[in-house]
Design brief:
single chain, 499 residues, mainly alpha
Length: 499
């Protein structure tokens, strides 16, 4: 209680002029408000500014309203608090001042209280949001869901689940907030566990739930689970939902099942730009350059204008297929015809295109003329090309830049060390290893996964933690013997591992 009083007392002051506020603005025409207008008229004007992203104008009108002797009602305050939540890096002080007025005028009903909690959550003040939540008397489902969403956003998973368990009623929004929170935190297995719990609780998912669950399946590469969720979509009457179908296209593509992605795409009654981008990028990720470019040109014939994502997919396909001339042409068309300013991912695709083709001079020329500083991914493409070309000297120069951009990255150090080892320069390979150790850089083990009976199993090299590891290693030995009988021999230049 002491903290709550200190917050409200600190901010319990006459309204300040909003000239100190700094918010993004948009071109607008401002409705005129007479000083003797009613609270409804003032609130309508304030809401107009909030809807069009001009919180500074809304705050000015709020100040004028109070100076005219018109006091706000709960709708005015909810409108402004909700707008503050949309500008979390600008509006905390103004939002907290509104909270003080809520306390002053006694507008502590459930709608206003929930808006205060949401504002504090989105303004990165979870401590104040939690305090307001605990002090509230009556809470409705929106209040509970808002608190769970705020906790999940900050990664307080344990507290989020605890609040979820304390909810008197849990509906589709409650479960979706939790599932989506786990997906955004990369906890995909937990997201699917809660989806199963949702179904066991008899709660029917909506399209927002499905999009989150399909995203979890895509990130896990869990095709069988994805197929099961697709069945839920068909049984739940969501087969014509564009967002759901777009997520299914992405999931099937990332699981390597492009034919199913194509079926979903062609089964859609309506498509938007995201639909086309999903299938184009899906083809590109799976190395289907011909289909990527076919759909790239087809979408334009059907009246869709490609955007930056579309060109990223098309350029990626050209890179993987070695279509240097086509890639150059697309890059120029993007800039000169469609007037799209290339972002770093587009330059990265162009660098990768040249690197894979062994055109190191052209790749370096792109890097030197980029309008932005290249990141470790862009330079890493050239470094990988150096390995293929055996150009250790250029690789050494690149590593100096990469280590500055990404000091904790391990993959490029490992690549350089392997280049030294392959060239017989053992001392230099050892030096790289010692440098990593002195900087506290450890090689992140590559994780592989396989889906068995709807359950995703993950493992790393040398892992013996699985309950059936003995049987797994017996099978690996059998496979190794079969490979040797078939005439397979490991490549001598990669048989030595320093890590």
């Amino acid at each position: 209680m002491n903290l709550f009083i200190s917050i409200t007392n600190q901010l319990h002051a006459p309204p300040h002029h909003s000239s100190n506020l700094s918010f993004p603005t948009k071109p607008h025409s401002t409705p005129t408000i007479e000083p003797n207008s009613t609270v409804s008229s003032w609130t309508s004007s304030i809401a107009h500014h909030c809807r069009t992203g001009r919180l500074n104008h809304a705050a000015t009108n709020f100040t004028r309203m109070r100076l005219a002797g018109v006091e706000p009602n709960h709708i005015t305050l909810v409108t402004l608090l909700s707008a503050c939540a949309e500008f979390p890096f600008h509006a905390l002080s103004f939002g907290a001042s509104l909270h003080a007025l809520v306390y002053k005028f006694g507008f502590e009903n459930v709608k206003v209280g929930t808006a205060v909690i949401d504002m504090y959550c989105k303004c990165n003040r979870l401590d104040l949001a939690r305090l307001c939540f605990e002090k509230m008397g009556f809470k409705n489902n929106v209040t509970w869901n808002t608190m769970v969403a705020g906790l999940m956003r900050f990664g307080d998973v344990g507290d989020a689940v605890q609040v979820f368990d304390e909810m008197p009623e849990r509906g589709v929004v409650s479960y979706t907030v939790l599932i989506d929170g786990f997906v955004k935190k990369g906890c995909y297995e937990h997201a699917l566990e809660w989806f199963h719990a949702m179904q066991a609780d008899g709660v029917e998912p909506d399209y927002v739930t499905i999009v989150s669950v399909v995203s979890a399946c895509a990130n896990l590469g869990a095709l069988k689970l994805g197929l099961w969720v697709h069945r839920v979509v068909l049984d739940g009457g969501m087969k014509d939902n564009i967002r759901v179908n777009n997520s299914l296209i992405d999931m099937y593509s990332r699981c390597g099942c492009v034919e199913f992605a194509v079926q979903v795409f062609h089964g859609m009654s309506k498509r938007n730009l995201v639909s086309w981008n999903s299938i184009i990028v899906g083809f590109a990720l799976n190395g289907n350059a011909e289909q990527t470019l076919e759909y790239f040109y087809r979408m334009q014939k059907e009246g869709f204008e490609p955007d930056g994502v579309t060109f990223t997919g098309a350029l990626t396909a050209c890179s993987h297929a070695g279509l240097v001339d086509e890639g150059r042409k697309l890059f120029d068309v993007m800039r000169n015809v469609h007037k799209i300013s290339p972002r770093i991912e587009h330059y990265g695709c162009l660098v990768d295109l040249y690197s894979r083709a062994g055109m190191l001079e052209e790749a370096l020329n792109v890097i030197e003329n980029m309008p932005m500083v290249p990141n470790e991914v862009v330079l890493g493409s050239v470094l990988a090309a150096c390995k293929a070309a055996g150009d250790i000297r250029l690789a050494e120069k690149l590593m100096r830049f990469i280590s500055e951009l990404d000091p904790s990255g391990d993959s490029n150090y490992v690549l350089l060390s392997n280049m030294y080892a392959a060239g017989g320069e053992w001392q230099k390979a050892s030096n790289v290893r010692r440098r990593m150790k002195s900087r506290g850089i450890e090689k992140n083990p590559g994780v592989s996964s396989i889906e068995i009976n709807g359950v995703v199993k993950q493992f790393v090299a040398g892992d013996k933690s699985h309950i059936e590891s003995e049987l797994i290693y017996d099978m690996l030995d059998n496979l190794s013997r079969e490979l040797m009988i078939s005439g397979y021999l490991p490549e001598a230049n990669v048989s030595v591992s320093w890590f």
